[in-house]
Design brief:
The chain has a single domain, classed as CNF1/YfiH-like putative cysteine hydrolases (4-Layer Sandwich). The radius of gyration is 17 Å and the shape is globular. A hairpin with a 4-residue loop joins strand 5 and strand 6. It is 25% helix and 23% strand. With 253 residues, it is an alpha+beta fold. The strands form three sheets. A six-stranded mixed β-sheet has the order 2-3-6-5-7-11.
Length: 253
């Protein structure tokens, strides 16, 4: 489990970015696959989620996950929230409830954990290029602001995600970003006629645009096998038919 030095200063919360070590799954899902949406054995995934839950805190509620769709949608959980059988479709979770671990799943996309140390509101965000491009970061921060958060009190942590050197994209991908904002060219580079995209720094730029200054970037590449993270791109390169999911989690104590 990887932690943020900035979030560790806040004793009101617990958090962690988990890689694929320390679970019960086998094969291409070895070992801490936390993705219920993967084709892994459902019982094993549930056991893995319990392992994570117990590392975050004892006697706490089940980890709250959403059905992620690479959107800009979020869900806010307060004491009036009614849980349904089906997971809500969203890519971010915000809450002010204690002992409720919220988490996002990634396999190269950027996980973001947020905490306002005055209101004690937290958020977990799944920011792939689509969600970040569509404005999920702004949407989450605007909701937090509506709930009384002040941007100078918010700490944001960008967890492990695919590094620029391993994130090759097509020309039309780059054009889409440049059409939105010419300044986005700084997140692209070309080497041997291959275009590369800097997801982590694009996500960081979106936080900065929203006046968030207290930012921690983990700078750990999920594609690099030595780092022991699940990677959709690495799985694709290895011609695997599926892949495991890493979990990033935060909870108000």
């Amino acid at each position: 489990m990887i932690k943020s030095t900035k979030l560790l200063k806040q004793n009101k919360i617990s958090h962690g970015f988990f890689n694929k070590i320390g679970g019960k799954s086998s094969g291409i899902y070895k070992s801490l696959n936390c993705g219920p949406g993967s084709n892994d054995n459902k019982k094993k995934v549930e056991e893995n989620l319990n392992i994570v839950k117990n590392k975050i805190g004892k006697k706490i509620k089940k980890i709250f996950l959403v059905h992620q769709t690479h959107s800009n949608k979020y869900i806010f959980i307060d004491r009036n929230f009614k849980q349904t059988k089906n997971k809500p479709k969203a890519d971010a979770i915000i809450t002010n409830q204690k002992k409720l671990p919220i988490a996002v799943l990634t396999a190269d996309c950027a996980p973001i954990l947020l905490h306002d140390n005055k209101t004690n509101i937290i958020a977990a965000v799944h920011a792939g290029w689509k969600g970040a491009f569509k404005g999920i970061i702004s949407n989450v921060l605007n909701l937090m602001k509506k709930k009384g958060c002040v941007k100078k009190n918010i700490t944001a942590v960008i967890g492990p995600c695919i590094a620029k050197k391993n994130y090759n994209v097509r020309e039309n991908f780059k054009k889409k970003f440049l059409k939105k904002d010419r300044n986005n060219k700084i997140f692209f580079s070309t080497k041997n006629n291959i275009i590369y995209f800097d997801l982590a720094n694009y996500v960081k730029s979106q936080l900065k645009l929203n006046k968030i200054t207290n930012i921690d970037m983990k700078n750990i590449d999920t594609f690099n096998e030595k780092n022991n993270f699940f990677s959709a791109r690495r799985a694709q390169k290895s011609k695997h038919e599926d892949y495991g999911r890493n979990i990033s989690i935060i909870m108000i104590n």
